[in-house]
Design brief:
The complex is a heterodimer of chains A (425) and B (319). In chain A, helix 9 (203-212) packs across helix 10 (232-246). Chain A has 425 residues and is α/β, with parallel strands linked by helices. Chain A is built from 18 helices and eleven strands. Chain A is 46% helix and 13% strand. Chain A has two domains: 35-155 and 311-373, 3-Layer(aba) Sandwich (D-Maltodextrin-Binding Protein, domain 2); 158-308 and 384-423, D-Maltodextrin-Binding Protein, domain 2, CATH 3.40.190. Residues 6-31 of chain A have low confidence and may be disordered. Chain A starts with a helix and ends with a helix. Chain B has 319 residues and is mainly α. Chain B has two domains: 2-61, no CATH class; 80-318, MetI-like fold, CATH 1.10.3720. Chain B has helices at residues 2-10, 13-16, 22-61, 80-86, 89-121, 127-139, 142-152, 158-166, 180-208, 212-220, 225-236, 238-253, 257-262, 274-284, 288-318, and strands at residues 64-65, 75-76. A two-stranded antiparallel sheet of chain B has the order 1-2. The radius of gyration of chain B is 27 Å and the shape is flat. Classes of the chains: A alpha/beta (425), B mainly alpha (319).
Amino acid sequence: MRHSRFALAGALTVAGALILSGCSSSPSAGTTDAPVTLTFWGTYGNGGNSAQTTVLENELIPAFEKANPGITVDYVDMPYDGLKQKLTTSAAGGELPDLVRSDIGWVAQFAQLGVFKQLDGTMPGFEDLSKAVYPGTLVTTSWNGHYYGLPLDTNTRVLISNQKALSAAGMTAPPATFDEMRAMASKLSGTGVSAFADSGLNAWNVMPWIWSAGGDITNADFTKSTGYLDSDKSVAGIQLLVDLYKEGAIPNLITGNTGATSTSDGLPSGSYATVLDGPWMKAIWQGQYPDFAPVYSPVPAGAGGSISVVGGESIVVSEATQHADAAYKFVEFTQSEDYQLGMAGTGQMTVKPEFADKQAAIDPSFKTFSTQLETARARLPIPQASQVDTILNTELVPAFTGSVTVKDALTSAAKQIDVLLAAKK
Amino acid sequence: MVVLNERRGAAPAAPRRPAASPDRRRSRRRRGWLTPYLFMLPGVALFGVFILFPIVQALQMSLYDWNILRGAASDFIGLDNYVRAFTDDRFWLSLSNSGIYMVLTVPPQIVLGLAVAMLLRSKAPAQPLFRVLFYLPVVTSWVVVSLLFKYLFADQGLVNFALGDVLHITAGDTSWLSGRWTGLLAICALGVWKGVGWSMMIFLAALQGVPQSLEEAASMDGANWWQRFRVVTLPAIWPAMLFVIVMLVIGGFNVFTSVLLMTAGGPGGQTEVLLTYMYQQAFSNLDFGYGSALAVILTVIVFIISAVQLRVFRDRGES
């Protein structure tokens, strides 16, 4: 009896010692000699698309690990809708990964909260890397005069047309200007085909029209919206959409009718003649509408030219990382030709103009997009970007349904955005 | 912990010494007084950790400009978040939409639930099948049926087809989900369809308890169907009715998934309800302080309404 009690005590002591030593071994992984594992959260596999995760996990990450012995990268794929929530709860719980592929729209918001690391002045070689990307994409990683990431992949919206609908309007080429858009709409009137369709009134949806009309949402240093969003030029961009909406040439999908035919179905089926959309649609249509041949052309030009909006993702380093130097190496690797063109092969557009030609050789349909990207602009890089979208939607819907003028709607929106801009500092 | 150790040491000794000193007896009585609380401890601990703590935490967060980052400092701003809510047009719009949803879904669920329960009370061969069929919507996922109803009420959906091409009541081109009232109507239709089975189940159980003899006696006295229902059945199931009303009102204010998936609060925030607005503030704008304040306001509203209902209906039930 006494004997076994001693044995039990001995076993417990040994087990305890093992557990304790196991616990204490983890902090030592932070030292320079020990192997480092970087956790990388992303949304490459969104929608069950394995093409991008396959290239990342089987080609790119192994290449990086080979070039950087001692560093392993553990990529964790997240559903797109869940990543922001996951980042939020992980920040609150102190369980952040080392690297994140973040939507460009979240960078300022998480930077303000102190979740993402400032890269200018901390990451070696950041200056040179930042100069090599499209200027419009770099703005999206900025907040309060500093940069919190590097663009990883980019996209923009161009005009995509259905050739049959164009022919029905007697047009040989897609509308290249606001006036041609209006002309096409009047020719299509009564045919049941909408001249243009879009699925909302967020900055993503309306800014191409405002910029192309020569207007803007704020001044250059993002401190004032009044005088810019409600300028005559900005009004002209929205007025085009409102006029077409009132003629019946734009369906109420744009004012938030979730029951209307989506742009991805309406364009190939011929209900909509034109939409603004991104490079990812090609693969979707190939699967669902194999006979449909989309026609790509620049955003119709107004008084300000043809200017579209920048989308995409950035690579960011979390403030919580214990392995910042290793993380910087991976960030640098994402800007390499191998990474950029490897991902271009799966439909992710490069952020570097120097690779545009090689990218066009991989897939010619990227050509219109990369040309558009040269002048494309970023949405407001402020933490309250989602509130700006809410304001635009709330104020613009009544302008479309006719209860207020476009000028009044934009004046009211500008006043509210002024308040957000004043609060951001 | 100290108490537990003391008990473990003392317990085996107690039965062996029947003639305990007065001192010891007093301490045993004290321990006896503790016993029920010790039994309650696990449940209370779980309640405290998973219910009470989050509520207190939300209350605390609502008084701050809350920074979500762990360890980060948050600014105490007192009641600013509450003041902001009361001057926020969108808050009032979403609160009124929640109220409209409650008003439009609770009475139909009670009337239809009770009607179906009355019909299914009689013994019929297919009765279990009907009970299952009526209860099926209750156990199906909100996400699935919300998407289903979104397609039913789409521009080219079944509802427009039925109203236009089959019944010729409308032109069949109603954009249900593009306006505040039509959108709310579609959301309410889903709420009623999904909820009838639940109230039916409660009423069915209550109806089992109505004494057959009373109904028979009423029949003998010449009471017709309606009189029997009003004077015999309804008073007998009154406690169940009270329960159903209170629960449905609470549930009505908590509408969320269907709105998020069917209209996403659109167009232009016109169909936003309080919970979707709270969700947007917290998880889209990352304004957890304001989101928490909205949650606290909703809790207070629901608490007051429930308390008033219980008081009013209990008095009526007694009279």
